[in-house]
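>> received
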Amino acid sequence: MSARAATIGRARRPAAAAKKKKRAAALPLEYNMMLTATLCLLALGAVMVFSASSTTRVLSNGGLSDSAFYLKRTLMFGTVGLLVMHLTSRQGLGFVRRMTPAILAVSFFLLAVVLVAGTTVNGSSRWIGSGFLQIQPSELAKVALVLYGADLLAGKPKRARSLEGLMPFLLVVGMAAMLVVLEPDLGTALVITFASSATLVAAGARMRDLALIALVLGSLALLLTLVEPYRMARLTGFLNPGADAAGAGFQAAQAKIALGSGGIFGVGIGDGVQKAFYLPEAHTDMISAVIGEELGLIGIVGVVGLFAVFGYAGLQTAKKARDNYGKLLAAGLTSLILVQATINLFAVMGMAPLTGVPLPFVSYGNSSLLATLFAVGLILNVARGGTASAGRLRVVQGGSARQGGSAKARASARSGRSRASGARSRKSGGGGGRNSRPRRAGHGRGRRASG
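>> returned
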């Protein structure tokens, strides 16, 4: 009896170890790294949004104003975004792929509506609605375009080998970028093009095709800058900020002053001066300058380090993805977030012209926060080993090729089932257990002949 108990104990220990190993494998290192970096950036963002906005609320509206107004909204939409991220990270990949055409269509519709009935702020019509229900369609469009590119290029990888194959994706991206530029919002249009280019690189596009695309996009960006006075002023302010420090170069100059005032360790959270009197939109586009002043060089390095961890985890997730769609999706969405962070930090540090691009997870922005956490949920889904079968609907994609591919897949599946069924039949007919009776040769030949 004791020997039997010992045998059962030994059998249970490997089973328990295997179960524990399976639970550990369900949450790989990349998953934990990305989740940790995201939560740290969100916590930092909540603190800095309150620090950057509370003083200006009191100064602009008097002592009776709600100094925690932006903090409350950040916490509320952050909670909703985390719920979306959690649900998407567990079971949303296949559903999102099937819904990609609908998401893309809705984003285009909203981009068109915002040009006609958008809320104008500081000369730009980028939002629909007002107050609590204000939506920025370009934030949804950024994610939708990466979803579309991953679906299209994963469904037919040979498209990435020629400009003709890439043309459907390039046309859709071009139309979306044009609508965003008309708002006007050149910064977001640049983010869209860079993230789409990263998706093409992950899909294996040829370097000469990418160089040609970059040449065309660079020429268009320069032309759009030259024909618009305020964009030209930003460019000249970047090239020579001291020439008009009270005008076009004011914001860039004040951001540098904030960074310089912070030194290595900063002046302390809440003790910054630039946010109160000199930095416009300190809680949104210029929140990096507030971090530099109040947390110093250590704070900026910490932010860069967290985004570096995020980027490493995202690209490793793309590398280890179980299918081509997961690889393209993780690479595209990770690049989308990193591009925004790079543009924001470079602009605040004076290394790029100011474009109005927010710092992901940290800057105040309800639509940006929800869209970014939705993207993170999809990346985490891929990190967990999630896959998604190809959807039935495509946007600007050849129907005959799709039907031929699906027919070929169905034929291959039927052939595989037939081979598996044959193997099972041979196995059941050719082998016997310890207690089975040997079959007569004549009976076996008769069954094979009749079969």
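>> The radius of gyration is 28 Å.
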